[in-house]
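Take a careful look at the sequence and tokenised backbone pasted below. I need to know what the token row says about the fold.
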Amino acid sequence: MDSLNRRQCLATLAAGACVSSALRAEETSAPVSGRAEHVISIWLGGGMGQIDTFDPKRRGDPKQKLAGSYYDAVDTAVPGVQLSEHLSQLAPRMDRVTVVRTVHHEVIDEHAAATNRMHTGRPISGTVTYPSLGSIIAHQRGSADEYAPPYVLIGYPNVTRGPGFLGAGAGYLYLTDTGRGPAGLSRPDGITAQRQTRREQFLKVLRDNAPETREQKLRDYDEAIQQSIRLSGPEFSQVFQLDREPAALRQQYGGEFGQRCLLSRRLVERGVRFIEVSHNLNFLNGAGWDVHNEGILQQHKLIQEMDTAVATLIGDLAAKQLLDKTLIVITTEFGRPPEFDSGGGRGHQGTAFSCVLAGGGLAHRGAWGETDELSKKIVSHPVGVPDFFATICAALQVDYRRNLYDGDRPVPITDGGQPIEALFS
């Protein structure tokens, strides 16, 4: 081997050693970590248009087919950061909020697939049912109180929001009516406290005499029974009594969606770790957030309802000194393009859209990342869905670098995502 080849070989070995050293340093260094204890995740089903809400641009005109925002923009508490005019209550609170304007993925043609991506952080697999973010947080952190479930869904359930391979222990408790609470936890008519106690005593006898099992599904089922007994008691059920709240505060939150947000604050106080609140109520504008064609005409009513409820939630949490402990997240399946469709509405866009973080003890800056003049392409600081998930995990003190396990198969907890470190400085 001549001297040139020896030098090349040594250089290659040195480079490899440097890379290995860097990888080892990254693995051994402490992960980014925040100080939040709870998540209130607000889901805008249908696809919120970022250009009409959190990333406004020049004014467009559907009649003239001029691409742009449907509404005017207003300044906020953060210089240089603007919002839609219909987010006027959030505007003065943006010093406690960061709009991540550069979230992106490639799924735009199918709402269900995009919903799955924005709940699990990954493409749909034919062999693995991945857990949702709510189930991941529930699995990693558990509930903050033994008389509270770790994960509550206020809305309609489906597999996208479920625990996947993590099993029933990381599943959710759900309700659709804030006035009644979960139907499955309500005692049937005629079951008095005395009868309930007697039934629990019989169940204990059966459990004490049953042989021990190593079957995880049976263990999960038994734990679910025990949890349901705890949650059906007064310690947890009183959280759904919204009439205990001041009438003025309830009115400030607004309609059904606002009451869901108020309930989510009470669930945080009770010890629930992760709450998802669905806001795809169609009765306001006839289309929810899926504003094709004429659906966009009443879109402002939906935006205003969200604005009122979320701004009140931020103020309410702050007044109770819970805002730094509670990360508010707003997500949707994809964004909307600046162009108008033939009916004056908008199609789907995944190249750039906005998701929102508020509270949670983060170093907020109003907005993160930049899109072009029509909010169609990313100009700086792109954030993939795994990165957004890693940011949430880091805020909740969950190591986003670790693996979960589907049997013996390791599954990266956020599919290799990296948090937005600037929000933790």
Remarks:
- The two ends are 51 Å apart (CA to CA).
